[in-house]
Design goal:
Layout lengths: L13 E4 L2 E5 L4 E3 L12 E2 L4 E2 L16 E6 L2 E6 L11 E3 L4 E3 L15 E5 L6 E5 L22 E4 L4 E4 L19 H4 L18 E2 L10 E5 L4 E5 L3 H8 L5 H8 L8 H11 L3 H13 L2 H5 L21 E4 L4 E4 L15 E2 L7 E2 L15 E6 L4 E6 L12 H6 L12 E4 L1 E3 L3 E3 L11 E5 L2 E5 L8 E4 L10 E4 L5 E3 L10 E5 L6 E7 L6 E8 L4
Length: about 525
Amino acid sequence: MAINFPNNPNANDAFTSGGTTWQYDGTAWNIVSEEFGRNIFANFSGDTGTATPTVSSDTLIVAGGSNITTSVTGKTITINGQSGGLTQNVFDTIVADEGSTTAASINDTLNVLGGTNISTSIATDTDNLTVNMDSHSIDFLSDVDTTSSPPSTGQVLKWDGAKWAPGADATTGGAGTDADTLDGFDGSYYLDYNNLNNKPSILTLSSLSVGVENTPSGNGAISYDNTTGVFKFTPPTASGIGALTAEVNDLSAAVVWANVPDANITQSSVTQHQAALSITESQISDLQSYLTSVSASNLNAISVDALSDVDTTTSAPSTDDVLQWNGSNWVPGTVSGGAGEVNQNAFSSIAVSGYGNIEADSKTDTLTFVAGTGISLASNVGTDTITINSTVTGGATAFTGLTDVTSAGLNVGLIYEPAIAMLRVDNDGTAAYTFNSHYTGNNPTIVVLAGTTIAFDLSQISGHPFQIQDPTSSPYNTGLVHVASNGTVSTGSSAQEKVDGVLYWRVPESISGTYRYQCTSHSSMVGSITVKRLSVI
């Protein structure tokens, strides 16, 4: 039979007839069920995408994704993660000193194997992997070779210049140690007595001495006691001297006689030497008379004028006179200049710039150092030094700390270096920069010449960091020098974004085109800088 559906229905309107419920989807009526009044989800949404049933008997399929499986038992949907799920922490790749390996699957196995002289083991029912070093011979060491030449009994390892290898023991088969003998030591070792237990006594000069001379005997002699280290002299007797000179008739006999002590000179010995020296008794008598007349008092009485090249008679000396050479003789005279000694290096005058010279008034005059304002003096008699120290503390540490700078209102930044122009930078609120010293209006276009220096006075733009930019609106740091009012100098990128002081731009001669000035705190405060090259104008 015909069903009389409502006219002009709206989407999702419901209509029941004969126990069957219908719903309008905007285009057609669809059977829903006899239980239309229950709550159901009309749409399903996932992480990506949405599913909407198109008919009353539509089916929603729940499918597993990567490493996910689904199953339905009765009215239950089970979602399972596969073995080795995504939430476990594992190493996908293992890297060794040489080479690496990557897991081929989620349940792949890494085998840890022992290499040369290495073994591995896992204790039963534990997760412990043990790596052990197997026992090995000394030949396993890289710098030991006992294979090329196998060792024999009593040999030791010796370095052959490239490796340790078997060799004969220096103590001939182990019968002793090198500490007991000289075996195995080079010459420099056993030539050093300090390396020996039974070393000889070492003679030193302090071990020797000269003893009291012995009683004269025979021809005389020198003896040495090798136990005490004492030398003793035995003078000859007169008869002994006679025996020495009887065979000699030349001057050598006189030399022997001259070294004989006075106590051993007798009339007999003098008579014997008289003939050897061909000296008469009269000549010996005259010599004795002269030596008697020259006593100590006679020698002290000799004056300097007795010297052949000294003349103190023609002109008698006065107090403080010295001997001066007059071309022929040494004669009395005074010191030139009237101060100091003639042979000393000294300054008779001290020159003081702006003042008269200080001159010594006598040989013993004193130059006095006096400490002035802010000066202290210290002297060291031992080293003959005078130290002059400043007692002034503090002082200016910045340019503006100078009193004449503050009073004159001078800003070092304004005179740091010559510039073709000094632009006074100001601002119109946060809307624009102004340069009323040279341009009118807000954010005007500035023209500069490449190869010159232009300066920006930033002392009036507090709160508006000033930056130079290239044609791409990136900071341009080349040639920038900022000088703060206290004299602090910054260059390059450190000279950018300043709000006081003076910014100098040494414009490279090689650039041209449109550059920019920009307030980095307010985007509307921006303008163009046209750079022109003199070489192409």
